[in-house]
Every structure is written in C-alpha cells, then in structure tokens.
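Renewal narrative, Specific Aim 1. Our central claim is that a sequence can be written position by position from structural information alone. The example that follows is taken directly from our test logs and has not been curated for this report. It begins with the structure tokens describing the chain, in the order in which they were read.
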C-alpha cells in the first residue's frame, strides 16, 4: 500500500515533470509571435500592406541572424479595417492565441482603444499579459495622460515633431500665411491646436489664415479644400495627413496649380511622392526619423544595403519605417536581457534602454515609454540619390535635429505593476 502510494506519487511527479519539460521545449522551439493589427482592406489597405512588408522583412533578417534566444520571429497579420472596436477584438484574439506582443501604428484613435484593451487584460489576467508596441500613432496623450507601462512608442510624438518643425519654420522668411488642414480625429486635432500656438509663439510675422479638419478616409475629392486654400492666400500648408488622405490632397493641389510649400509628417509615404512628382521640388517637406539620402549624408553603408535589399524584394514600395528596424531590434535586446517573453520582465528591460541605431543613439524614456531619437527635416529634390515612391524625385536633408532638440517634457504618471 505504501509502496504503491509512493510509486503513484513518483509516477505523478514524473508525469508532471515530463509535462513541464514538454512545455518548456514547446516555448523554446516555437516562434515568438507579434500580432500586426492594421488595415489590410479598405481605403488604407496600401498603408497596412506596406507596414506588414516592413515587419516581415525585419523578422526575416532577425531570423537569419539566429532569431531571438534561438527562436524564430513570426509576424501574425490581423486586419482591423481601421476600426478601434475591431482592433480591440483582435487584441483579445492575440491574447487568446498566446501572442505576447501586439503592434500597430495607423490611427491614434485605434491606438488609444488598444492601450485600454491591453491595460484591462493585464489587470485581470496576470498570467497572460501582453505588450503593445506602437510604431506610428503619435497623439501625445498616449505618452502623457494615457501612458501605460505596457505601451511603448517608437515614433516621435506629434508634439516633438511640431516643436522641431516650427523651430525650422521660424527661420524661414518666406512663411507669412499658414493654412492648417488635418484629419478630424485626435492626431489632426492636436496639430490644429498646437500649431496655432506655436505660430503665435515663434513666428510673429506669420498668421494662420485657415484651419480645417476633414473626415478621415471619407473624402474622395479634395478640390473644394484646395480651392479654400487658394482663396486664403496661404503660402504654406501644414498637414499631419497620411495614407490616401494625403496623396489625394496633394494630387488635387497639383491639379489646381496650388503654389504653396507643404510641411508634412508623411510626405515621403506611400502614394504622395508619386502624386506630386518633380513638381514637389523644393516645396514638399517632411519631418521623419530617417529618409534614404540620410545614408548618403552620413555614410551608413550597411543600412544602405538593408533598404536596397528591401527595395529589390518589394520594388513597388520603399523602406520607409526606420522605426520598425529600431522596434524589432530593441525588442530582441529586451527579450534577451529579460531571458523571457514575459511581459513585465520585457517591459522593464525596454524601459530606459539605449540602443545604437544606424542614425545614432536612441533612448526609450523610462518616464513615459516615448522613444527619443534624432530627427530630420527634408524636402523633395530631383537630384537626390534615391527617389521616393518610384517618382523620380527623392528627399534632401535641410535640417538635422539632434536628440536634445527632439525632446519635450512628459506629464505621464506611470503606474507600474
């Protein structure tokens, strides 16, 4: 009886140990998955598809280098149709599937819903937490009043971009009448409000002559908006528009012969350079963390090979999201430092991380999980070494913004586990 009981205990222990070893082996051998939650259908499908190609290319490069702790990286594509509610459901699906990381960037309204979903899950399910890696949603609230321990932003927030952009614009003597046109959601609303303040603070000889917010992804004909810009007498347009909303606006401006300078966040993105072509010479500006000719200026030959390989793989698009490179390699460093994909440990490793990016040192600020990085203001130039969007025209750096000038304070009151 005693012997049988001991045998039973021993057998049960061995079974439990076997299951634990099997579970450990499963974790060690199976991919580290990242759920990519973006529009893969609808008006912004081209943007979502481009981002997916970026992530999968970066994952392939990581995997060719041995992966993360010997495990391969897999990008799991999920179509959110640019819907916040759909995105929340997909976050839950990723959690149910045991995916420890979700990533998204298109739409701060979507990002806000995802932050709430991630926080809600992580409060309720301590054994199945998830980290949200944000590569493009730039509403400052996400790293201020809505900051989260489980949210990390790898793009510069909108207030950082506007600070740098307005500093440059203040040095220009050809800016007198500024027109603001933006998408009507949190991102565009912030630009509208903050840019008016910055013009008043830094540009005493300039005035705002128009301020329009339009429905996101619903305008097919921007010619009425362009007519209003023409009537205002504006010499400068500032816009945070992205995707087809920017491409269609630029195309309408060119069709109407609108002679203004455009200062944008995403002028080098999909469709826009092709829409303007050589007519954007010295007129279409963007502020970014990188563009192709930065490599020419700063001798980044290894990274030049990276984006040339991407271009040869996907001739229809350019390597545009340098921040995805930073995100993927910083995640790798954090997981390897933590020795696990467990969310609290990885988040703690990402906090305060300094990373040697091809463009210089970038830091994930611990206070709010906002990345701090060098920025570049560039303008379309037909003499650029690399064209953008197969347009025959590329971008030339006109202002190199060091990290200390691409930083603003945060009001985040981080709640940590």
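The sequence written for that structure reads:
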């Amino acid at each position: 009886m005693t012997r049988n009981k001991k045998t039973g205990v021993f057998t049960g222990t061995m079974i439990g140990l076997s299951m634990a070893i099997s579970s450990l082996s499963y974790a060690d051998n199976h991919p580290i998955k990242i759920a990519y939650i973006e529009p893969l259908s609808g008006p912004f499908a081209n943007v979502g598809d481009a981002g997916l190609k970026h992530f999968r290319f970066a994952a392939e490069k990581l995997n060719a280098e041995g992966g993360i702790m010997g495990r391969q990286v897999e990008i799991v594509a999920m179509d959110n149709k640019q819907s916040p509610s759909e995105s929340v459901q997909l976050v839950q699906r990723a959690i149910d599937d045991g995916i420890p990381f979700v990533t998204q960037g298109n739409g701060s309204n979507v990002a806000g819903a995802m932050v709430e979903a991630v926080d809600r899950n992580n409060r309720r399910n301590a054994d199945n937490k998830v980290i949200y890696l944000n590569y493009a949603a730039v509403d400052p609230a996400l790293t201020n009043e809505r900051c989260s321990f489980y949210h990390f932003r790898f793009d510069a927030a909108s207030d950082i971009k506007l600070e740098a952009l307005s500093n440059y614009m203040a040095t220009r003597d050809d800016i007198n009448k500024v027109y603001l046109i933006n998408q009507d959601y949190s991102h565009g609303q912030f630009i509208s409000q903050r840019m008016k303040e910055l013009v008043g603070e830094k540009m005493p000889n300039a005035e705002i002559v128009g301020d329009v917010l339009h429905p996101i992804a619903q305008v097919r004909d921007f010619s009425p908006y362009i007519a209003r810009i023409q009537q205002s007498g504006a010499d400068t347009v500032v816009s945070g528009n992205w995707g087809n909303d920017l491409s269609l606006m630029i195309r309408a401006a060119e069709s109407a012969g609108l002679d203004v300078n455009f200062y944008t966040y995403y002028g080098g993105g999909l469709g826009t350079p092709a829409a303007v072509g050589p007519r954007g010479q010295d007129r279409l500006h963007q502020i970014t963390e990188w563009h192709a000719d930065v490599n020419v200026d700063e001798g980044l030959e290894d990274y030049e090979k990276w984006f040339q390989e991407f271009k040869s793989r996907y001739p229809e698009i350019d390597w545009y999201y340098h921040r995805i490179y930073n995100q993927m390699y910083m995640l790798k460093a954090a997981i390897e430092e933590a020795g696990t994909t467990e969310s609290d440990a990885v988040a703690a490793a990402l906090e305060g991380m300094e990373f040697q990016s091809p463009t210089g040192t970038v830091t994930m600020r611990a206070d709010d999980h906002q990345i701090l990085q060098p920025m570049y203001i560039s303008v379309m130039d037909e003499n650029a070494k690399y064209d953008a969007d197969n347009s025959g025209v590329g971008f030339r750096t006109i202002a190199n913004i060091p990290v200390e000038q691409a930083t603003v304070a945060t009001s985040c009151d981080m709640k940590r586990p």
